[in-house]
């Protein structure tokens, strides 16, 4: 039992929000022996979803938690995506076990992450709507409103609090963190439907000067349709006119695929926003609470999950007396630039998709032409859309691999030892990868494994799969 459990603290870490970001974070913390409580305002799980694209780097993060293969079994794995302008970005050349994009409903991921978090010892308290918080030198008090069934307000106390509670984050508002940015798309229609005929390409996207339509299968007979009508600027609370949805789809594709039987419809406004700081004292922000952007490229859920993977091991280390303030500050230093990059990528994609004048359509088509004629541009797009190309700053003079994402290296086949690096990362600790015949010494808190290849590079890999240091010979 942690010290906080016996000193008036509800938990070491309070996580606000039980989406993919919060649940992965809670599972990581609980697996590290941290007492964690998740506060979720929804009283029940939802079987509806807005996000559905899981990119290669996120699948690697899940693989390091033994969750990638179970998740892949729930969806459809596709080799690439098409950009506005016609260029197709193939992911098959990525140096990853997961060279492609997984299409699966967000609730499938949430179910796996919740099961893992609960099994590791995390508590999830639903119907807990956060109304405010206060920080002091020792911890954070988080106020929760009475439930719909009644009762009294409750205050939870933790060493730290992490807001993973989305674009309308109560944690962000409570700490007074600004969320500058702008609206990009208004009144985008969403629907889960049945189709009589499947699109020729998966996922399918087409735009016109008056709007666009996007169709993607969930793999269980249902399809998600996202459509935007330039001439219908309605409130996000306005009901979706199903005939209008079909008409926008027909205008884009020339047919509506026999769209029928909508089980869920909604509208949303898409903003581009990012907080200036991911940390405020003992409060942290992650996922959509820290950065929000257009759905183009399917990057939002992936960025949030990777925020959590970066923050979890750092909080666990700080609570155990290792790393201190500098390690906690590195969460902002490493992830804020990534969030800004995601805004740039998704913003460029959505603006290309919305090109409506002859000039902007010409720019969009030129971008597509350049991408088709310049393979290096497509490879670069694949690296950053997939997350495989993301890396963190390294100190001057560091080995070139420092700060880079570690590939899934094969390891020597020894009894009881993992056969590859991402299996070794399931221990939740640093992993030192040493060459064959090296004189490896056991070190506390570090799992030492042996390379199966002939390379002489020694790597110290962080729990989140990035190289802390490297040396040759």
**Could you say what the CATH architecture of the largest domain is?**
3-Layer(bba) Sandwich
Structurally, the number of domains stands at 3
Structural class: alpha+beta
CATH topology of the largest domain: FAD/NAD(P)-binding domain
Chain oligomer state: single chain
Provide the residue-averaged pLDDT: 88
List low-pLDDT spans.
Answer: 1-6, 356-364
Structure description:
The chain is an alpha+beta fold and 473 residues long. It is 29% helix and 27% strand. The chain contains eleven helices and 23 strands. Strand 22 and strand 23 form a beta hairpin. The longest helix is centred in the last third of the chain and has 30 residues. It is globular. Its cofactor is FAD. InterPro entries: FAD-bd, FAD/NAD-bd_sf, RIFMO-like.
Q: How would you describe this structure in keywords?
A:
single chain; 473 residues; FAD/NAD(P)-binding domain; Alpha-Beta Plaits; Glutaredoxin; 3 domains; 8-stranded mixed sheet; 11 helices; FAD binding; FAD-dependent oxidoreductase; FAD/NAD-bd_sf; RIFMO-like
């Amino acid at each position: 039992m942690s010290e906080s459990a016996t000193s008036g603290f509800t938990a070491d870490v309070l996580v606000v929000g039980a989406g993919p970001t919060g649940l992965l974070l809670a599972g990581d913390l609980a697996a590290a022996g941290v007492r964690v409580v998740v506060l979720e305002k929804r009283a029940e799980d939802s079987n509806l979803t807005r996000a559905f694209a899981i990119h290669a780097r996120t699948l690697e993060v899940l693989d390091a938690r033994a969750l990638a293969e179970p998740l892949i079994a729930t969806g459809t794995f596709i080799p690439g995506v098409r950009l506005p302008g016609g260029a197709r970005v193939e992911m098959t050349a990525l140096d990853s076990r997961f060279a492609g994009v997984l299409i699966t409903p967000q609730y499938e991921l949430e179910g796996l992450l919740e099961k893992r978090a609960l099994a590791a010892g995390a508590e999830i308290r639903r119907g807990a709507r956060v109304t405010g918080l206060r920080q002091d030198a020792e911890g954070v008090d988080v106020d929760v409103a009475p439930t719909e069934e009644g009762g009294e307000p409750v205050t939870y106390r933790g060493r730290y609090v992490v807001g993973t509670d989305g674009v309308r984050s109560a944690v962000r508002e409570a700490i007074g963190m600004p969320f500058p940015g702008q609206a990009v798309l208004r009144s985008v229609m969403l629907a889960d439907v049945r189709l009589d005929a499947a699109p020729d390409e998966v996922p399918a996207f087409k735009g016109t000067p008056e709007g666009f339509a996007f169709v993607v299968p969930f793999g269980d007979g249902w399809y998600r349709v996202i459509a935007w009508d330039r001439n219908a600027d309605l409130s996000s609370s306005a009901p979706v006119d199903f005939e209008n949805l079909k008409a926008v789809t027909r205008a884009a594709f020339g047919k509506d695929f026999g769209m029928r039987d909508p089980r869920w419809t909604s509208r949303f406004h898409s903003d581009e926003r990012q907080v200036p700081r991911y940390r405020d004292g003992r409060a942290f922000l992650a996922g959509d609470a820290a950065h929000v952007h257009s759905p183009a490229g399917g990057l939002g859920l992936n960025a949030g999950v990777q925020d959590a993977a970066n923050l979890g091991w750092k909080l666990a280390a700080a609570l155990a007396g290792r790393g201190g303030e500098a390690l906690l500050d590195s969460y902002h230093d490493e992830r804020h630039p990534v969030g800004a990059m995601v805004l740039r990528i998704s913003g460029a994609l959505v603006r290309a998709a919305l090109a409506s004048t002859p000039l902007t359509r010409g720019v969009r088509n030129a971008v597509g032409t350049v991408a088709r004629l310049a393979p290096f541009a497509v490879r670069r797009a694949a690296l950053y859309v997939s997350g495989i190309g993301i890396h963190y700053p390294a100190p001057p003079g560091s080995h070139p691999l420092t700060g880079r994402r570690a590939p899934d290296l094969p390891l020597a086949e020894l009894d009881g030892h993992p056969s590859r690096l991402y299996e070794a990362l399931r221990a939740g600790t640093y992993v030192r990868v040493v060459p064959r015949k090296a004189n490896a010494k056991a070190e506390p808190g570090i799992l030492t494994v042996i390379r199966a290849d002939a390379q002489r590079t020694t790597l110290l890999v962080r729990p989140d799969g990035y190289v802390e240091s490297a040396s040759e010979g």
